[in-house]
């Protein structure tokens, strides 16, 4: 039985395309919430790390929607069980198939 041979450059291109992506930081916020808050009432408490996401799909290079920052914050708030996020990092990850907006925070209150 004959097995097809793949050249080394073609194999390297295939492997690199499978793991290629892009990650970046869009910004940092001291406080973030999707709810109305009195800033004086924000408690300073124990830290917990959560990641909120707003994911979309790409068809070739065309997005099916746009990532939503509010959805990512709401996702992180639901995970933490809090009303407000503190020490928030906003970033993005793009991979060959999905693209997402992520919100990382270290202290829900």
Helix content: 10-25%
Q: How many runs of DSSP E, i.e. beta strands? A: 6
Distance between the first and last residues' Cα: 65 Å
Mean pLDDT: 76
The whole-angstrom Rg is 19 Å
SSE succession: HEEEHEEE
What fraction of the residues are assigned to beta strands by DSSP?
Answer: 35-45%
Q: Major beta sheet, specifics?
A: 6 strands, antiparallel
Low-confidence region ranges: none
Structural class: alpha+beta
Inertia-based shape: elongated
Domain count, please report it. 1
Instruction: Output the number of helix runs.
Output: 2
What would you note in describing this structure?
By secondary structure, this protein is an alpha+beta fold. The chain has one domain (21-108). The longest helix is centred in the N-terminal third of the chain and has 12 residues, at 8-19. It is elongated and about 70 Å long. Strands 1, 2, 3, 4, 5 and 6 form a six-stranded antiparallel sheet that branches. Helix content is 22%, strand content 41%. The chain has helices spanning 8-19, 69-80; strands at residues 21-32, 50-59, 62-63, 85-95, 98-105, 107-108.
